[in-house]
Design brief:
- The chain has 4 domains: 63 residues, Winged helix-like DNA-binding domain superfamily/Winged helix DNA-binding domain (Arc Repressor Mutant, subunit A), CATH 1.10.10.10; 44 residues, no CATH class; 84 residues, Roll (SH3 type barrels); 78 residues, Alpha-Beta Plaits.
- The strands form 3 sheets. The protein has a 5-stranded antiparallel β-sheet with strand order 7-6-5-4-8. It has a 4-stranded antiparallel β-sheet with strand order 10-11-9-12. A 3-stranded antiparallel β-sheet has the order 1-3-2.
- The longest helix has 17 residues.
- Helix 1 packs across helix 3.
- The protein contains 11 helices and 12 strands.
- The chain is α+β, with helices and mostly antiparallel strands and 318 residues long.
- One of its GO terms (molecular function) is DNA binding.
- Pfam families: HTH_11, WCX, WYL.
- Keywords: DNA-binding, Transcription, Transcription regulation.
């Protein structure tokens, strides 16, 4: 009985970790016969887990969404990760999710082993949540976008640009991206036949069309760069004359990509709403650098250098 229970728990863990398992592969992972696998699947169904089976050469098993939430099987690191995520969600960013996150966190902490509860409580007591001014997004919208991305299902929605212009979009979603304060949907715009990045709080009436598509891959670095461009007036490309590990340790916050050029220099791509802010951010790195773009930044740095040079004067005589 103990071996059967352990095997069924192992089966549950595999079904939760993978969307769909071919029957022979699942039986091989559990080191059982197909007949024993079918009996274990039946045991899970009796416990309320909705396991769907498909027949034929490509047949297999998958754990479907049921009418009730069955218990989840988590290891130590997964439990701590969920607790940290719930604590982060409780600080805002998604509309109306704060109280729900706190309720779920309380339930999780109640069943956590003491060794894990101490780790979670330490994080909770030593962390201060600072609420921002940025708009929040609807959790149902995030769930819809994430599911469509996972299932490779086309989305239809209305979108409002920064200038207020509204348009209808048909998109093949690739990924959701978060900068910590805003959510973005990255996808292939079928009408414009190009990659686009959409702020989720500007989407209206998103709808999964049911039409499937073959997933595409965006150009390297597109996701990271595209979430900065929509919120930045200026995009800067700068060579920093220092090793990558030195730059990565000094450059603060999200919204930038750093690429090693050689052992002594790297390429920085970042953004800002003002030339003054870009000059300050790059200048405070304390590194030699060369500006490639935008030309306005190079010009502003020249004026700033002349102003600073002119501000130096011999000390006043007493």
């Amino acid at each position: 009985m103990a071996d059967t229970t352990a095997r069924v728990l192992r089966l549950l863990s595999l079904l939760q970790a993978h969307r769909e398992w071919p029957g022979p592969e699942l039986a091989e992972r559990l080191e059982v016969s197909p007949r024993t696998l079918r009996r274990d699947i039946d045991r899970l169904r009796e416990l309320g887990y909705p396991v769907h089976a498909t027949t034929g050469p490509a047949g297999g098993y998958r754990l479907e969404a049921g009418t009730a939430m069955p218990p989840l099987l988590l290891d130590d690191e997964e439990a701590v990760a969920i607790a940290v995520g719930l604590r982060t969600a409780a600080s805002g960013g998604v509309t109306g999710i704060e109280e729900t996150s706190l309720r779920a966190l309380a339930k999780l902490e109640q069943v956590l082993p003491s060794r894990l509860r101490r780790r979670v409580n330490t994080l909770q007591t030593q962390t201060v949540a600072v609420r921002g001014w940025w708009p929040t997004v609807d959790p149902d919208t995030l769930a819809l976008l994430a599911q469509a991305s996972r299932d490779h299902e086309r989305l239809r929605f209305g979108y409002r640009r920064r200038d207020g212009t509204e348009s209808a979009r048909l998109v093949e979603p690739y990924r959701l991206a978060s900068t910590g304060r805003r959510w973005y949907l990255v996808g292939w715009d079928t009408d414009r036949r190009d990659w686009r990045t959409f702020r989720v709080d500007r989407l209206t009436s998103p709808l999964a069309t049911g039409a499937r598509f073959s997933p595409r891959q965006p150009p390297p670095g597109y996701v990271e760069e595209s979430v900065v461009a929509p919120i930045s007036r200026y995009r800067a490309v700068v060579t920093l004359h220092a090793p990558l590990e030195v730059v990565a340790d000094r450059f603060p916050g999200p919204g930038a990509t750093i690429e090693a050029l050689d052992e002594r220099s790297c390429l920085l791509r970042t953004g800002g709403d003002s030339l003054e802010w870009l000059a300050l951010t790059i200048g405070m790195l304390g590194l030699d650098f060369t500006v490639h773009d935008p030309p306005e930044l190079a010009g502003y740095l020249g004026l700033l250098a002349a102003r600073l040079q002119a501000s130096t004067a011999p000390p006043l005589r007493q």
